[in-house]
Write a structure and sequence with these properties.
The chain is of the alpha/beta class. The protein has one domain (about 5-195, about 230-270): Protein-Tyrosine Phosphatase, Chain A (Alpha-Beta Complex), CATH 3.90.190.10. It is built from 14 helices and seven strands. The protein has a five-stranded mixed sheet, covered by helices on one side. Strands 2-7 form a two-stranded antiparallel sheet. The protein is globular, with a radius of gyration of 18 Å.
């Protein structure tokens, strides 16, 4: 797949930055999300000087860091003059403590889950998917992100460490609030595996022998450096299990009732040949 042929591609960044413009995605309505307003990425602290210089041409008003405090201390965001920068972890336990998306972080979340699934399944993989999907519920960081989007606090960037899990789920939710269908949102989510193909391949190739002997380790590697499609799909199945419809979910979680969704879409959608925002 040629990433530079995608409408969401942003030139000037290495693929591992996982930086994308949510704009350019065309909804089933035929309308397109406006470009140049909402970006997602890995942690900007890992950008090189040329990439940081390009980032500052975006005219950003707001950056939301979805990482834990520990992650942010290890690789601080660069100071971006004139930009409001905020950190709110995109995964927290029931006590409000930050959780990173490492295997150890998920184990901590297993012990103190923020959301208890009403029909929890027994397998380890299914339990991990349930924990992963819990970040879509009662999430103050996502609520803050949607609140900023509702009032047009753009251009904005949201990111986590590698731009794949906390960032990937948030991006799926934004696209679906704009009318994107769930399968297409998951397709966008798994593009991380293309952006991060070199890191993922290096990890798998470096441990191919043991991963052949213990196939489940390949799943761990995929989770560590990329994303797993079934995890993205599980987010939506859990939403439907709890709320029935996406519309009910957006109303309850983000205060976006039918009128709110209509206003949200009016703000960010345009005909594909419509004006480009300044």
């Amino acid at each position: 797949m040629k990433l530079d042929r995608l409408p969401t591609y942003v030139p000037g960044f290495r693929d591992e930055c996982n930086l994308r413009d949510l704009g350019g995605n065309v909804m089933p309505s035929g309308l397109m999300m406006r470009k140049g307003l909402v970006y997602r990425s890995a942690a900007p602290g890992g950008f090189n000087p040329a990439e940081l210089e390009t980032l500052q041409t975006f005219g950003l008003r707001y950056v939301l860091d979805l990482r834990s405090a520990r992650e942010a201390r290890a690789l601080p965001d660069p100071d971006l003059p004139g930009v409001e920068q905020q950190r709110l972890c995109g995964a927290i336990d029931r006590f409000g403590h930050d959780i990173d998306m490492s295997f150890g972080g998920l184990v901590r979340l297993l012990l103190t889950p923020r959301r208890t699934d009403p029909d929890r399944e027994g397998s380890v993989t299914s339990a991990l998917m349930e924990l992963y999907s819990s970040i879509a519920f009662d999430n103050p960081a996502y609520q803050e992100l949607f609140a900023r989007l509702r009032v047009g606090c753009t251009p904005l960037l949201f990111h986590c460490s590698e731009g794949k899990d906390r960032t990937g789920v948030a991006a799926m939710l934004i696209l679906c609030a704009l009318g994107y269908d769930e399968e297409a949102a998951v397709d966008s989510y798994v593009l991380t595996n293309v952006y991060r193909r070199d890191e993922l391949s290096a990890l798998i190739d470096g441990h191919r022998k043991i991963m052949t002997a213990v196939p489940k380790l390949r799943l761990v590697a995929q989770f560590g450096k990329g994303v797993i499609r079934e995890f993205g799909e599980r987010v939506f199945s859990e939403i439907h299990q709890q709320y029935g419809t996406l519309e009910a979910y957006f109303a309850q979680e983000f205060g976006l009732d039918a009128d709110g969704l209509a206003e949200f879409r009016a703000r960010y959608l345009v005909a594909p040949d419509g004006p480009t925002p300044r």
